[in-house]
Amino acid sequence: MDLTSGGTARRLLAGVAVAATAPYLTLKLLWLSGSTVGVVGAGFTDDSTLWVLNLLTFAMDAVAVALALAFVRPWGRRLPAALPVFPMWVATGLLATLIAALALTLGADALLGPEPSHGQQAWLRPWVYALVYGGFAVQGVTLLAGFALYARERWAALLRERIGGLPRTSTLPLQRVLACAAAVLAAPAVGLHLLWSVGGTLGLAAGTAAEAGRGLRLTQGVSGLAAAVACAAALALAFRWRPERRLAPLLATGWVTGGSMFAWGAWIFLADAVSAGAGAERTVPAATLLADAAQVAGGLFLLVIGALTLVEHASARADIESAG
């Protein structure tokens, strides 16, 4: 499939991804302009914290549109790798976590029956959740599939490698230190997320646990497990565990779970920081903020390991081709 002209599958995926963002972007624009469509009760438009968070999430979904276009337009291949890779990594982490948690929530609701409304759900109409999370699910599937085709074309040689075939460069000791540091930093956040997923309250503001519905608890559990798997994948990559194994599955696993580790840690930390800065009544415990910040730092370490792997592999291949 030719990336510069765009294949039918990639164009279709990009078109569906862009279309899936339209309802969400429209709803956010309405809320930013003062509308209360889909909202139950008063006070929604007076909350500065929600306004800032709505602006942030609007911008994030707008980036998803740009990414979808980059996967099908000729200029997408000419972009420096970091431009599409970093936002796509973040988007992968957010959307894959949401899709997994949504699937688990729907399954749990089917088996156990739906829960009463909790927290934020109490002031949003049910159709808002169908629109938002339905759109996220479609975006996630189409963006991930589109990026997979894009990556297969742009980094095909790397994906064909085996773990032991990666170059052992002078940065390998640094990569190993970063992988170990990421695991240490992520450990408190992993523990807290898994604890919250089963109803624990350690590190939560008073009343937060009572408002957490099944969907939020499952999201916490998925996030915690993803961070643990991401650190394991980084260690396997840095220490060249199972060198005979294909590299692609390890990269894919680390890509999705590492994105989840960084993106969810950053989103929760940012949301809590915005709430605190806006003078929210409920304070966020310092331990929670520190755990989230450590998770973000660990995720950045994983990003550095991945970037070094990509750059050094490309350099090694260039040297081989020039020598040949």
TrEMBL record:
Coiled coil: none annotated. The chain crosses the membrane at residues 12-31, 51-72, 84-107, 127-150, 177-198, 218-238, 250-270, 290-311. It comes from the Bacteria. Keywords: Membrane, Transmembrane, Transmembrane helix. This is LigA protein. It comes from Kitasatospora paracochleata.
